Amino acid sequence: REREREREYAFNNTIGLQQGPLYIPGTAVAVSEAIKLTCSAALVLYQNGFDRGMQEIREEILQKPRSMLKLLVPAALYTFQNTLLFFAVTLLDAATFQVTYQLKVLTTALFSVVMLGKRLSIQQWLSLIVLMAGVAAIQTPAKAPASAASEASQADSNAARFLGLLLVIAACVSSGFAGVYFEKILKGEVTSLWIRNMQLAFFGVVLSLLSLVYTDLDKRASEVWMDAHTHTHTH
User: Fold this and answer.
1) Which of these ranges, 92-96, 109-113, 154-158, 180-184, has the smallest mean pLDDT?
2) CA atoms within 13 A on the CB side of 98
């Protein structure tokens, strides 16, 4: 019975490492951005009617390149953030991932103070401190059964957990900066929420596809180099 528990513990803590990637993060991000773009466009057409909706889409997306380019930075950061999260979710358990990701509230507050000059009340600072304490508490590792096999699997699990935490923290920083930057550059502009979502999703799709193309070309180049290297040594 004890051995069965050890095997179950090792399996649950190393499944992400042993099974390999369950999906390609870049593809998942590209698909999610494409869905967001399609849904936002559908809502624009629904709210304004087909003719007026298409006219608004043309004016805001095709005829205002300067306004579009303002959103390139936050769109790139959101795409980067989503990619990190897809990697992190395979390395962390659900509770740790969800709680740690709430640090985006802290990073957003700090960037708001630095970039927008906002002032936080004592209650807000206390709330952020409580949030940090909660995140720290969830990081306490679970006790594993004592055996050589479990110690090895626990070491792998701790390494994966640490990497996952770094990815989530980087995503929180990216999310906080992107949100505050987005608010700063668009302050005073009056544009439909769904149009803004379309603009962000458009860049998200483009950047995700470029990332996939680069990854595929890099993989193919590595395979060609390995084949050439192997062929040279065999002769």
Assistant:
1) 154-158
2) 3
Q: Name the nearest CA neighbour of 104 among 121, 123, 122, 88.
A: 88
- CA dist 79 and 90 (Å) reads 18
pTM: 0.74
Q: How far apart are CA 12 and CA 15, in angstroms?
A: 6
The pairs formed by 6-14 with CB atoms below 8 angstroms and a separation of 24 or more are 6/145, 6/147, 6/149, 6/150, 9/144, 9/145, 9/150, 9/153, 10/149, 10/150, 10/153, 13/144, 13/153, 13/154, 13/156, 13/157, 14/153, 14/156, 14/157, 14/160
Residue type, 95: A
Amino acid at 100: T
DSSP string, 27-40: HHHHHHHHHHHHHH
What is residue 177's predicted lDDT score, i.e. its pLDDT?
A: 95
Distance CA 146, CA 162 (A): 21
Six-digit token pair at 69?
Answer: 């380019």
Angle formed by the axes of helices 148-185 and 72-88, nearest 10°: 160
Report angle CA 34, 94, 169 to the nearest 5 degrees: 75
Tell me 146's DSSP state. Answer: -
pLDDT per position as a tens digit, 14-55: 444 445 556 677 888 899 999 999 999 999 999 999 999 999
Decide if 84 contacts 171 (C-beta within 8 A).
Answer: yes
Place of tokens 């544009």: 191
